[in-house]
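Final report, Chapter 2: Outcomes

The project's central promise was a pipeline that accepts a single protein chain and returns its three-dimensional structure in a standardized token representation, suitable for archiving and comparison. That pipeline is now operational. To close this chapter, we reproduce one record exactly as it appears in the project archive, with the input sequence first and the structure output second.
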Amino acid sequence: MIRCIAIEDEPLALGQIESYINKTPFLVLSGSFDNALEALEFLGTEPVDLIFTDINMPDLNGMDFVKLLQHPPKVIFTTAYEEYAIEGYKVDALDYLLKPIGYTDFLKAANKANLYFENQPASSVETKSTDDFLFIKSEYKVIRVNFSDIKYIEGMREYVRIHLINGKPLMSLMSMKKIEEHLPGNRFMRVHRSYIVNLAQVSTVEKMRIIFDGKVYIPISDQYKESFQQYMDNHFL
């Protein structure tokens, strides 16, 4: 599935793009925004593969918005002005849709995006572990992650989200079982079907829930309760 966001300051046009994304089997809508500034904030924490964005918008136009992104996802521009086409390709846009946009034209652009991603290196995450870090293949990049930088890991269906002490979370196509196999058992513990925690980061436990930063509550399920309680007992004064 290709994760998308839509950016459009006209409500009717935004609704149309949303409906086109939702009816296209290989696209999933991760968010929609009526201005680029909100989308910019969203991209700071959420990984996205593809952006459908209008060009002429108040405050920050779509072209400048893409130029601001340090590692921009692929982009398909939507606009009523044909003269922007050449400029769009200068920022490596996948396609350019001229309004009014019919579903046939939208699907052609979406299929172009699908073909692009199919021809990229496999997005399945591979890890190579050492005593202190692992390499994670994510978002078509290989990223070094130090064990000490991991706060907790969250399973999200076929993905895992690695929450870091500093910086935005990393999202990767990977099973919880696979990443658990590459983590040192004396430093990390599975406490729930959907959570693995860095034991060094556990500071508060309340009612069989681990609390991070006073606002994130991670449940300890019955399946893992005994092993976590043993860890607590071994370190209890």
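Archive annotation: The longest strand covers residues 27-33.
This record, like all others produced under the grant, will remain available to the consortium after the project formally closes.
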